[in-house]
Amino acid sequence: MGSKKRPRLDNELYEAELTKLQAELVEMQEWMRTTGQRLVVIFEGRDAAGKGGAIKRIMEYLNPRVARIVALPAPTERERTQWYFQRYIEHLPAAGEIRLLDRSWYNRAGVERVMGYCTAAEYQRFLRQCPIFEQMVMEDGIMLRKYWFSVSGKEQERRFRSRLTDPMRRWKLSPTDLESLTRWEDYSRAKDEMFVHTDLPGNHWRVVEAEDKKRARLNMIADLLASVPYEKVQRPDLTMPKRPASTGYRRTERDLQQYVYDFAATLEGSTERPEKYVDPEETDVFVPHETAPGVVPKATVRRTRAPRVRRPAATPSEEEPLPEP
Q1: 273-282 pLDDT per residue, tens
Q2: Closest CA to 152 of 288, 283, 279, 48
Q3: Sign of torsion over alpha carbons 106, 193, 78, 175
Q4: Rounded CA gap, 84 and 199, in Å?
Q5: What is the pLDDT of residue 285?
Q6: pLDDT at 258
Q7: How far is Cα 133 from Cα 54, in angstroms, rounded to an integer?
Q8: Which domains does the chain have, with CATH numbers?
Protein backbone atom coordinates (compact mmCIF):
# COMPACT_ATOMS: atom_id res chain seq x y z
CA MET A 1 0.00 0.00 0.00
CA GLY A 2 3.02 2.24 0.22
CA SER A 3 4.30 4.43 3.03
CA LYS A 4 2.41 7.59 1.98
CA LYS A 5 -0.23 8.50 4.53
CA ARG A 6 -3.73 8.37 3.10
CA PRO A 7 -6.56 10.71 4.15
CA ARG A 8 -8.96 9.37 6.73
CA LEU A 9 -11.97 7.59 5.33
CA ASP A 10 -15.19 9.58 5.07
CA ASN A 11 -17.38 8.67 8.04
CA GLU A 12 -20.65 8.27 6.10
CA LEU A 13 -18.96 6.01 3.57
CA TYR A 14 -17.39 4.02 6.40
CA GLU A 15 -20.67 3.56 8.28
CA ALA A 16 -22.56 2.50 5.15
CA GLU A 17 -19.96 -0.06 4.09
CA LEU A 18 -19.49 -1.36 7.63
CA THR A 19 -23.21 -2.10 7.84
CA LYS A 20 -23.05 -4.10 4.59
CA LEU A 21 -20.07 -6.10 5.85
CA GLN A 22 -21.76 -6.74 9.20
CA ALA A 23 -24.80 -8.10 7.36
CA GLU A 24 -22.48 -10.49 5.52
CA LEU A 25 -20.93 -11.54 8.83
CA VAL A 26 -24.41 -12.53 10.02
CA GLU A 27 -24.82 -14.63 6.84
CA MET A 28 -21.44 -16.24 7.44
CA GLN A 29 -22.39 -16.99 11.04
CA GLU A 30 -25.60 -18.72 9.97
CA TRP A 31 -23.73 -20.82 7.41
CA MET A 32 -21.22 -21.90 10.04
CA ARG A 33 -23.98 -22.74 12.52
CA THR A 34 -25.96 -24.86 10.08
CA THR A 35 -22.97 -26.63 8.50
CA GLY A 36 -21.03 -27.22 11.71
CA GLN A 37 -17.91 -25.41 10.51
CA ARG A 38 -15.41 -24.01 13.01
CA LEU A 39 -13.42 -20.77 12.79
CA VAL A 40 -10.63 -19.22 14.86
CA VAL A 41 -9.56 -15.65 14.14
CA ILE A 42 -6.38 -14.40 15.81
CA PHE A 43 -5.87 -10.66 16.40
CA GLU A 44 -2.29 -9.63 17.08
CA GLY A 45 -0.23 -6.48 16.54
CA ARG A 46 1.17 -3.42 18.24
CA ASP A 47 -0.50 -1.97 21.32
CA ALA A 48 -3.19 0.56 20.32
CA ALA A 49 -3.21 -0.74 16.75
CA GLY A 50 -7.00 -1.14 16.72
CA LYS A 51 -7.50 -4.86 17.38
CA GLY A 52 -10.22 -4.32 19.97
CA GLY A 53 -12.14 -1.91 17.76
CA ALA A 54 -12.16 -4.40 14.89
CA ILE A 55 -13.38 -7.19 17.19
CA LYS A 56 -16.13 -4.93 18.55
CA ARG A 57 -17.46 -4.20 15.05
CA ILE A 58 -17.35 -7.85 14.07
CA MET A 59 -19.30 -8.91 17.15
CA GLU A 60 -21.89 -6.10 17.06
CA TYR A 61 -24.68 -8.13 15.39
CA LEU A 62 -23.45 -11.69 15.85
CA ASN A 63 -25.04 -14.23 18.14
CA PRO A 64 -22.87 -14.44 21.30
CA ARG A 65 -23.77 -18.13 21.58
CA VAL A 66 -22.10 -18.73 18.22
CA ALA A 67 -19.29 -16.15 18.18
CA ARG A 68 -17.30 -15.40 21.31
CA ILE A 69 -14.29 -13.29 22.22
CA VAL A 70 -11.41 -15.02 23.95
CA ALA A 71 -9.24 -12.57 25.91
CA LEU A 72 -7.35 -14.53 28.53
CA PRO A 73 -5.82 -12.87 31.61
CA ALA A 74 -2.31 -13.55 32.83
CA PRO A 75 -1.78 -17.26 33.53
CA THR A 76 -2.26 -18.58 37.04
CA GLU A 77 0.46 -20.38 38.95
CA ARG A 78 -1.02 -23.71 37.88
CA GLU A 79 -1.29 -22.66 34.24
CA ARG A 80 2.36 -21.66 34.22
CA THR A 81 3.25 -25.30 34.87
CA GLN A 82 1.07 -26.60 32.00
CA TRP A 83 2.07 -27.16 28.42
CA TYR A 84 2.00 -23.65 26.99
CA PHE A 85 -0.80 -24.26 24.47
CA GLN A 86 -2.95 -26.15 26.97
CA ARG A 87 -4.86 -23.15 28.33
CA TYR A 88 -5.85 -22.13 24.79
CA ILE A 89 -7.08 -25.55 23.68
CA GLU A 90 -10.18 -25.45 25.90
CA HIS A 91 -11.27 -22.25 24.12
CA LEU A 92 -11.15 -23.70 20.60
CA PRO A 93 -14.56 -23.82 18.88
CA ALA A 94 -16.94 -26.76 18.66
CA ALA A 95 -19.16 -27.35 15.62
CA GLY A 96 -20.82 -24.20 14.33
CA GLU A 97 -18.80 -21.83 16.53
CA ILE A 98 -16.51 -18.84 15.95
CA ARG A 99 -13.76 -17.76 18.32
CA LEU A 100 -12.10 -14.34 18.12
CA LEU A 101 -8.80 -14.37 20.00
CA ASP A 102 -7.94 -10.91 21.33
CA ARG A 103 -4.27 -11.79 21.74
CA SER A 104 -3.43 -15.45 21.60
CA TRP A 105 -0.66 -17.97 22.09
CA TYR A 106 1.53 -15.49 20.21
CA ASN A 107 1.95 -13.62 23.49
CA ARG A 108 5.00 -15.81 23.98
CA ALA A 109 6.62 -14.53 20.78
CA GLY A 110 5.78 -10.91 21.58
CA VAL A 111 5.38 -9.39 25.00
CA GLU A 112 6.73 -12.41 26.90
CA ARG A 113 9.84 -12.49 24.72
CA VAL A 114 10.51 -8.74 24.87
CA MET A 115 9.64 -8.19 28.54
CA GLY A 116 11.47 -11.28 29.74
CA TYR A 117 8.38 -13.11 31.00
CA CYS A 118 9.62 -16.38 29.51
CA THR A 119 13.01 -18.04 29.29
CA ALA A 120 15.03 -18.35 26.11
CA ALA A 121 14.41 -22.11 26.13
CA GLU A 122 10.63 -21.59 26.44
CA TYR A 123 10.72 -19.10 23.57
CA GLN A 124 12.67 -21.41 21.26
CA ARG A 125 10.35 -24.28 22.13
CA PHE A 126 7.37 -22.11 21.19
CA LEU A 127 8.83 -21.28 17.77
CA ARG A 128 9.31 -25.00 17.08
CA GLN A 129 5.93 -26.15 18.38
CA CYS A 130 3.65 -23.34 17.16
CA PRO A 131 3.61 -24.34 13.45
CA ILE A 132 3.01 -27.97 14.45
CA PHE A 133 0.22 -27.03 16.85
CA GLU A 134 -1.51 -24.85 14.25
CA GLN A 135 -1.15 -27.56 11.61
CA MET A 136 -2.89 -29.98 13.96
CA VAL A 137 -5.69 -27.47 14.51
CA MET A 138 -6.22 -27.01 10.78
CA GLU A 139 -5.96 -30.74 10.01
CA ASP A 140 -8.86 -31.28 12.40
CA GLY A 141 -10.98 -29.01 10.21
CA ILE A 142 -10.76 -25.71 12.11
CA MET A 143 -10.36 -22.69 9.84
CA LEU A 144 -7.55 -20.50 11.21
CA ARG A 145 -7.08 -16.84 10.24
CA LYS A 146 -4.24 -14.74 11.67
CA TYR A 147 -4.31 -10.93 11.46
CA TRP A 148 -1.43 -8.63 12.37
CA PHE A 149 -2.44 -4.99 12.89
CA SER A 150 0.45 -2.73 11.88
CA VAL A 151 0.77 0.87 13.07
CA SER A 152 3.64 3.36 12.97
CA GLY A 153 5.48 4.47 16.07
CA LYS A 154 4.25 8.04 15.62
CA GLU A 155 0.61 6.99 15.40
CA GLN A 156 0.95 4.60 18.34
CA GLU A 157 2.38 7.38 20.50
CA ARG A 158 -0.45 9.71 19.44
CA ARG A 159 -3.03 7.14 20.53
CA PHE A 160 -1.24 6.53 23.81
CA ARG A 161 -1.22 10.27 24.55
CA SER A 162 -4.94 10.50 23.85
CA ARG A 163 -5.61 7.65 26.26
CA LEU A 164 -3.78 9.47 29.05
CA THR A 165 -6.59 12.02 29.17
CA ASP A 166 -9.55 10.21 27.60
CA PRO A 167 -11.81 8.98 30.43
CA MET A 168 -13.44 6.44 28.10
CA ARG A 169 -10.16 4.72 27.19
CA ARG A 170 -7.90 5.38 30.17
CA TRP A 171 -8.38 1.77 31.32
CA LYS A 172 -6.71 0.55 28.12
CA LEU A 173 -3.36 2.04 29.10
CA SER A 174 -0.98 0.11 31.35
CA PRO A 175 2.66 0.55 32.35
CA THR A 176 3.54 -2.34 30.03
CA ASP A 177 1.86 -0.52 27.14
CA LEU A 178 3.87 2.63 27.79
CA GLU A 179 7.08 0.67 28.04
CA SER A 180 6.48 -0.63 24.53
CA LEU A 181 7.33 2.90 23.31
CA THR A 182 10.86 2.54 24.60
CA ARG A 183 11.17 -1.00 23.21
CA TRP A 184 9.85 -0.32 19.72
CA GLU A 185 12.78 -1.94 17.93
CA ASP A 186 12.79 -4.92 20.30
CA TYR A 187 9.14 -5.59 19.43
CA SER A 188 9.93 -5.13 15.74
CA ARG A 189 12.71 -7.72 15.86
CA ALA A 190 10.50 -10.13 17.82
CA LYS A 191 7.71 -9.73 15.25
CA ASP A 192 10.10 -10.31 12.35
CA GLU A 193 11.47 -13.48 13.91
CA MET A 194 7.96 -14.71 14.72
CA PHE A 195 6.94 -14.23 11.08
CA VAL A 196 9.96 -16.20 9.87
CA HIS A 197 8.77 -19.25 11.82
CA THR A 198 4.98 -18.91 11.59
CA ASP A 199 4.17 -17.13 8.30
CA LEU A 200 3.96 -20.34 6.30
CA PRO A 201 2.28 -21.55 3.08
CA GLY A 202 -1.36 -22.33 3.83
CA ASN A 203 -1.07 -20.54 7.16
CA HIS A 204 0.00 -16.99 6.36
CA TRP A 205 -0.25 -13.91 8.51
CA ARG A 206 -2.60 -11.28 7.04
CA VAL A 207 -1.15 -7.83 7.71
CA VAL A 208 -3.63 -4.97 8.27
CA GLU A 209 -2.40 -1.41 7.78
CA ALA A 210 -3.98 0.32 10.78
CA GLU A 211 -2.92 3.98 10.58
CA ASP A 212 -6.59 4.73 9.92
CA LYS A 213 -8.76 2.55 12.16
CA LYS A 214 -11.81 2.80 9.93
CA ARG A 215 -9.95 1.66 6.83
CA ALA A 216 -8.36 -1.12 8.87
CA ARG A 217 -11.73 -2.43 10.08
CA LEU A 218 -13.27 -2.49 6.62
CA ASN A 219 -10.19 -4.10 5.07
CA MET A 220 -9.90 -6.74 7.76
CA ILE A 221 -13.59 -7.72 7.77
CA ALA A 222 -13.74 -7.81 3.96
CA ASP A 223 -10.68 -10.07 3.87
CA LEU A 224 -12.14 -12.41 6.49
CA LEU A 225 -15.40 -12.72 4.56
CA ALA A 226 -13.53 -13.38 1.32
CA SER A 227 -11.44 -16.11 2.96
CA VAL A 228 -14.40 -18.14 4.29
CA PRO A 229 -16.33 -20.12 1.62
CA TYR A 230 -19.74 -19.43 3.16
CA GLU A 231 -23.03 -19.50 1.26
CA LYS A 232 -26.38 -17.90 1.93
CA VAL A 233 -28.52 -20.21 4.04
CA GLN A 234 -32.23 -20.39 3.34
CA ARG A 235 -34.01 -19.63 6.58
CA PRO A 236 -37.46 -21.06 7.37
CA ASP A 237 -40.40 -18.71 6.96
CA LEU A 238 -41.73 -17.52 10.29
CA THR A 239 -45.25 -16.29 10.95
CA MET A 240 -46.48 -14.41 13.99
CA PRO A 241 -49.04 -16.44 15.97
CA LYS A 242 -52.30 -14.86 17.09
CA ARG A 243 -52.43 -13.80 20.69
CA PRO A 244 -54.95 -16.02 22.56
CA ALA A 245 -57.91 -14.56 24.38
CA SER A 246 -57.38 -13.47 27.97
CA THR A 247 -57.97 -16.00 30.71
CA GLY A 248 -58.48 -13.35 33.38
CA TYR A 249 -54.88 -12.60 34.34
CA ARG A 250 -54.46 -9.33 36.24
CA ARG A 251 -51.14 -7.55 36.36
CA THR A 252 -49.55 -6.91 39.75
CA GLU A 253 -50.23 -3.44 41.13
CA ARG A 254 -47.42 -1.03 40.25
CA ASP A 255 -47.15 0.15 43.87
CA LEU A 256 -46.00 -3.31 44.90
CA GLN A 257 -42.98 -3.25 42.56
CA GLN A 258 -39.83 -1.16 42.66
CA TYR A 259 -39.30 0.62 39.36
CA VAL A 260 -36.07 2.35 38.35
CA TYR A 261 -36.06 6.11 38.60
CA ASP A 262 -37.19 7.82 35.35
CA PHE A 263 -33.91 9.57 34.66
CA ALA A 264 -34.82 10.07 30.99
CA ALA A 265 -37.75 12.28 31.99
CA THR A 266 -35.36 14.77 33.60
CA LEU A 267 -33.61 15.22 30.27
CA GLU A 268 -36.74 16.02 28.27
CA GLY A 269 -37.40 19.30 30.02
CA SER A 270 -33.78 20.37 30.14
CA THR A 271 -32.27 22.87 27.69
CA GLU A 272 -28.82 21.47 28.40
CA ARG A 273 -27.52 19.07 25.77
CA PRO A 274 -24.56 16.85 26.62
CA GLU A 275 -21.68 16.88 24.16
CA LYS A 276 -21.37 13.82 22.00
CA TYR A 277 -18.26 11.79 22.71
CA VAL A 278 -15.72 11.94 19.89
CA ASP A 279 -13.03 9.28 19.88
CA PRO A 280 -9.74 11.24 19.80
CA GLU A 281 -7.96 8.25 18.28
CA GLU A 282 -10.08 8.49 15.13
CA THR A 283 -9.48 12.19 14.50
CA ASP A 284 -6.50 13.88 12.87
CA VAL A 285 -6.03 16.42 15.62
CA PHE A 286 -5.62 15.69 19.30
CA VAL A 287 -5.27 18.52 21.83
CA PRO A 288 -4.09 17.19 25.21
CA HIS A 289 -5.11 18.70 28.50
CA GLU A 290 -2.78 21.34 29.88
CA THR A 291 -0.93 19.30 32.45
CA ALA A 292 2.66 18.79 33.43
CA PRO A 293 4.50 16.16 31.38
CA GLY A 294 3.70 12.68 32.57
CA VAL A 295 0.85 13.80 34.83
CA VAL A 296 -2.48 12.13 34.17
CA PRO A 297 -5.40 14.49 34.89
CA LYS A 298 -8.48 13.22 36.64
CA ALA A 299 -11.18 12.12 34.25
CA THR A 300 -13.97 14.66 33.87
CA VAL A 301 -17.04 12.45 33.72
CA ARG A 302 -20.48 13.66 34.75
CA ARG A 303 -21.86 11.36 37.42
CA THR A 304 -25.60 11.04 37.57
CA ARG A 305 -27.31 9.92 40.73
CA ALA A 306 -30.95 9.00 40.78
CA PRO A 307 -32.82 10.08 43.93
CA ARG A 308 -33.48 7.36 46.41
CA VAL A 309 -36.90 5.86 45.82
CA ARG A 310 -38.66 4.40 48.82
CA ARG A 311 -40.33 1.11 48.23
CA PRO A 312 -43.96 1.18 49.39
CA ALA A 313 -44.75 -0.67 52.58
CA ALA A 314 -45.58 -4.28 52.04
CA THR A 315 -49.19 -5.28 52.17
CA PRO A 316 -50.23 -8.18 54.41
CA SER A 317 -50.19 -10.48 51.39
CA GLU A 318 -46.52 -9.58 50.76
CA GLU A 319 -45.29 -10.05 54.30
CA GLU A 320 -43.38 -13.18 55.04
CA PRO A 321 -45.07 -15.61 57.45
CA LEU A 322 -43.67 -15.86 60.94
CA PRO A 323 -41.45 -18.88 61.52
CA GLU A 324 -43.05 -21.71 63.35
CA PRO A 325 -41.89 -22.20 66.96
Answers
A1: 778 878 877 7
A2: 48
A3: negative
A4: 20
A5: 53
A6: 93
A7: 26
A8: 11-227 (3.40.50.300)
